[in-house]
Design brief:
GO molecular function, one term: protein transmembrane transporter activity
Function: Part of the twin-arginine translocation (Tat) system that transports large folded proteins containing a characteristic twin-arginine motif in their signal peptide across membranes. TatA could form the protein-conducting channel of the Tat system.
Number of strands: 0
Keywords: Cell membrane, Membrane, Protein transport, Translocation, Transmembrane, Transmembrane helix, Transport
Protein name: Sec-independent protein translocase protein TatA
Helix content: 55-70%
Main location: membrane
């Protein structure tokens, strides 16, 4: 289905469309802005990788989570459920 999806002439057509849309005067400025954006993206990615590599060594050991409150015995749980049902009247269709 996608055997010949991207051919070299596709790239030529994309280049022509970009040249028509942006015009010859704006293309250098657009390319310059794209290059700046890619440099910023790369530097931020490097900084994030360096930060991730340094953070496990700097982080204090984590504490164990606090224990949960004890669960009530099954008999008490049914009593609470029955109290909630006392106010409901049976419905007759």
């Amino acid at each position: 289905m996608f055997r010949n999806a991207l051919q070299p002439w596709h790239l030529v057509m994309v280049g022509l469309v970009i040249a028509i849309v942006f015009g010859s005067k704006k293309l250098p400025d657009t390319a310059r802005a794209l290059g700046k954006s890619l440099r910023i993206l790369k530097s931020e990615a490097r900084a994030m990788r360096a930060e991730d590599a340094a953070s496990p060594q700097d982080a204090p050991p984590t504490e164990a989570p606090a224990p949960l409150a004890p669960t009530p015995p099954p008999g008490e749980a049914t009593q609470v459920g029955d109290r909630g049902r006392q106010g409901l009247a049976p419905s007759n269709p």
